[in-house]
Each structure stands twice: as C-alpha cells, then as structure tokens.
Design brief:
Strand order of the largest sheet: 1-2-3-4-5-6-7-8
Helix content: 25-40%
CATH class of the largest domain: Alpha Beta
CATH superfamily of the largest domain: Aldolase class I
CATH architecture of the largest domain: Alpha-Beta Barrel
Strand content: 15-25%
Number of helices: 17
Number of domains: 3
Largest sheet: 8 strands, parallel, barrel
Shape: elongated
Length: about 500
C-alpha cells in the first residue's frame, strides 16, 4: 500500500541525500554540549545508518571544535565530512586544516540580518560571496553556500546571490529558513523558482519555530531540492531543526523516495542521541516515540490484533524503524488486549474471570495510576487464585557507596534460579550504579528503555513511585513499578519486578 504521491513522474523515484547537522546545529541546542567521545560515537552512528554528509562542526569556533572535526575526518567513515565557515578566509582555512570533504560557507542575505549582523550592502555581499566560494574551491572539491535567512530575503536578490554563488563554484546551494517563518506553500513556491532560475543542486535547512520544519523540508523536496538537512530528534537552535526520522520516513514511505538511510536503525539512533543530549524522547514523538506503535483503546487493539494497518499507517511498520508494537493498559483497555497480554505469559482466564480482570484494571487506571504489566499479573493471579508464579530473581543484599569525591558504586547479592550471584558496578549516580549491578547479574540480555519517578507525598522524606520498562533480547517490553521513601531501593524494586516479568514466558 502506498500513500498519495505528490511528485510529478519525473521526480517520483529520484534519490534525495541526507545532510545531518546534529553535531553542529544540534549541539547549539541550549544546554547541550557533547563530549569528544560522544561526538566520535555519534559520527560513527550517523555514518552507519547511511547519512550522506555529516556537518561535523564549526572548526573556527574553538581549538577543541577544530580538533574534533579533524578527528572525525580521520575516522575514515563512509560519508562526507563537512565543516562550517563564515564568509571569511580564516574560517575557511580552519576547515582546510581539518581536511574536510566539503566546506559550508554562509553569509546573511536578508536586509534585517545583513544590516544588523555584518553591516554590509547588498553589493558587498555579492562580492564577498564570489570571493569566499572561489577561495574555498581552490582547496576543496565541494563547497556548499548558504544565503542565511533566505526565506526573509527579497526573492529577486536571493536569486541574484545564488547565481553568483554558482558562478563562483558552489557545488550545492542550501536554502535556510533560519528563523522558521515560512509556510510549506511558500517554501514550495520559493524552491520552485530557484530550481528554475539557478542552475545548481539545491539543499534545504528548516527550523521548527512554528512546528513546520519537517513540512517545509518535504515541500522543498517536492519543488526540486535534492538534499535535506536534518538533526536527530530535531535538535537545534531554539525549537530545533527538521527531525531526521520524520523526514526520512515521510520521503520513503509516503513519497517513495530513496534516502539511503537504514530505517531499521532510526529508533536506535534516536535513543543514542537522547542519552547523550539528556533530552528525553517524548512518548508521542513521531516515528521513534514509545507510543507510536502502542495501543490502549479497546476498538484499536481489537483491530490491530486482527490486522495491524487498521490503526497503524501500514506503509510504516514498527519493524521498519526498529520499533516494537505494544499493547498497553489503561482505562480504555479492552478485553482482546488483556486476553492477548495474559496469553503471552500462558495465563488463560475464562470469560467471567477476564471481565473481572478488565474491570479491576480500568478501576485502577481511572484513579490516575499507571497500570504496569506486573500489576496486571498480580490482578490476574488474585482473580484466578493462582498467584504470580515463581520469581527467578530474588534480591538478597545491596550496598551502595556514593559521595562528592566518590565514584558511585553498587554491590549486589542475589539468587537467580536458586543460585547465588554477586556483582558490582559503577554509575553516574547511586540509582544508575544499582540498576547496572542488577542487570549485570542476570544471564539474559535486557535493556532499560524507560525510567520514570514521581513523588507521592511532599517533603524530603517523600514516598516516591518508580516505573521502569525493560526490553528483552527479542525486543518485547515489560514494565513494572516500585514505591518507597528511598529512591534507590524503589528503583531497584521496580527493576527486579520487571526482570521477573521477562521470565514468565
């Protein structure tokens, strides 16, 4: 099944390359500063998923930035490495020193930016554009030119600047919606004109101030852009940039365009950047969010269990992006979902018992409490009189050492299938160290996918409630919770409950 295709026949099957600027514009997100090691890992990941060009940074901005860009270039990745430069020779020289494959030069062209940031006339900007691109092309084979604030630049002058850039040797011209103010219809009209009047490949860089970055990027491709600039998780200045996963999946699944991106690694990449940036992925984040393929409503779950594309796009499946379909519990849950979730762990209530279990789940959820998988099994065990079954993991002792001059360390002694195990681990804090120590004991590979904590009561001795979700080696997700006046122990209880759930199948 294919969505409506808006391209003309001549463009419907052309490739569109992906230019990722997570390491440059993405790091300009307020509060984000990736470490050198994180930048290296991010660059490797972006190359591994098929990104065509990585904007590794702004070499002239600092010595550390220059060293990082040079180090990324030396990795020998299967992607082009680009450095950003203002339209001054010193900036271009810094990029040349890094041996980048492409230099990205920019200069303000809108009247408001040109007059207030560089104090140059339109004629001076044209002259500088020609000179700096010519200088860059004397040293590298690829040069991208950006007329900064293009969408607020007088259109005739924008065409003139772009033509001057092409004449000077620009190999691709990027059209930035620098402050995110254009609408998709306007972007399409602008790019259509530039595609007709400027004989040069076009790229687009959109900001998300009005939530239109992805829509504007797609509109630009409709009009002729052959490359899109994106960031992982939509990071970037202010409200961010066009999101990589959303842009890729729209182009691939709806428009039938080949981007070269390994789509099955999109969720993995999103989680990597979330971990490094400290900015969580919203459950409702398109493509990669936890809720994208999660279903609670009774009619939805019934339909999805029968045929997945009844309440999913169909042209985008969870497996396609590295996700998993998930049935969740809440006040809208239906009998089909509850029966299916219980059947997966070999619990088979009769119809009367099932009705009671469903009503109890809805009653708890209606009070505003999240109902976890562990809660469901406890309810089922109570209703059916069977209990929750044998627990394969039993925590005997846990000791944690932490302090302002001490690396947080946790030591755990536990029984796994009746055999005693001892394990120690360090972490970023006492909770992290404790959870890593527990995970280190169990033989099966699991991954912590969600950690949520909330205070139930006030004060420094507040009772807290911790909810944890883990994925087993097959990608199936289990969630459980723990409560108490000690955050570490409540977190440990939640993880132990989740681990015991993974052993029920």
């Amino acid at each position: 099944m294919r969505g409506i295709v808006f391209f003309t026949d001549s463009r419907a099957h052309e490739d569109v390359t992906v230019f990722d600027t997570t390491l440059r514009d993405g790091e300009q997100t307020p509060g984000i500063a990736f470490t050198f090691e994180q930048k290296i890992e991010i660059a490797r990941q972006l190359s591994a998923i098929g990104v065509h060009t990585i904007e590794a940074g702004f070499p002239a901005s600092s010595t550390a930035e220059k060293e990082t860009v040079a180090a990324i270039k030396k990795l020998g990745l299967e992607t082009n490495i680009c450095g950003l430069a203002r339209s001054v020779k010193a900036d271009v020289d810094a990029c040349i020193d890094c041996d980048v494959d492409m230099i990205h030069v920019f200069i303000p062209t809108s009247d408001i930016q040109r007059e207030n940031t560089i104090n140059k006339t339109r004629e001076q900007v044209l002259e500088i554009t020609g000179e700096i691109i010519g200088y860059a092309r004397d040293h590298v084979s690829r040069c991208m030119f950006s007329p900064m604030d293009a969408t607020r630049t007088e259109p005739d002058y924008l065409v003139e600047v772009c033509r001057a850039a092409k004449k000077a040797g620009a190999t691709i011209i990027n059209i930035p919606d620098t402050v995110g103010v254009i609408a998709p219809s306007g972007m399409k009209a602008l790019m259509t004109r530039l595609a007709k009047e400027v004989d040069c490949p076009l790229d687009v860089h959109c900001h998300n101030d009005f939530g239109l970055a992805v829509a504007n990027t797609v509109a630009a491709v409709e009009a002729g852009a052959s490359q899109v600039q994106v960031t992982v998780n939509g990071l970037g200045e202010r409200a961010g940039n066009a999101d990589l996963a959303q842009t890729v999946m729209i182009l691939e699944s709806i428009y039938g365009v080949n981007t070269g991106i390994k789509k099955e690694r999109l969720v993995e990449t999103s989680r990597l950047i979330s971990r490094f940036s400290g900015i969580g992925i919203a459950p409702t984040q398109p493509v990669v969010g936890e809720n994208v393929f999660s279903h609670e409503s009774g009619i939805h779950t019934q339909g999805v269990l029968k045929r997945s594309d009844t309440f999913e796009p169909g042209i985008m499946t969870p497996e396609m992006v590295g996700h998993r379909r998930r049935l969740t519990l809440g006040k809208h849950v239906g009998r089909h979902a509850v029966r299916q979730m219980l059947a997966e762990t070999h619990i088979e209530p009769d119809d009367t018992q099932l009705d009671i279990i469903v009503e109890k789940v809805k009653a708890i959820a209606s009070k505003g409490k999240r109902v976890t998988d562990a809660d469901l099994y406890e309810i089922a065990g109570s209703v059916m009189g069977t209990g929750v079954g044998k627990k394969v993991f039993r925590l005997d002792d846990i000791a944690i050492m932490t302090g302002n001059h001490v690396i947080p360390t946790a030591s755990v002694r536990a029984q796994v299938n009746g055999t005693e195990h001892v394990f120690s681990s360090v972490g970023n804090g006492p909770v992290d160290a404790a959870l890593k120590a527990i995970v280190g004991i169990i033989p099966a590979r699991i991954q912590l996918t969600e950690f949520h904590i909330e205070a139930i009561s006030g004060g420094s001795d507040a009772i807290c409630h911790v909810t944890i979700a883990v994925a087993d080696e097959h990608g199936k997700i289990y969630d459980a919770s723990g409560s108490g006046d000690d955050i570490v122990l409540a977190s440990v209880d939640a993880l132990v409950n989740a681990i015991n759930l993974t052993s029920r199948e």
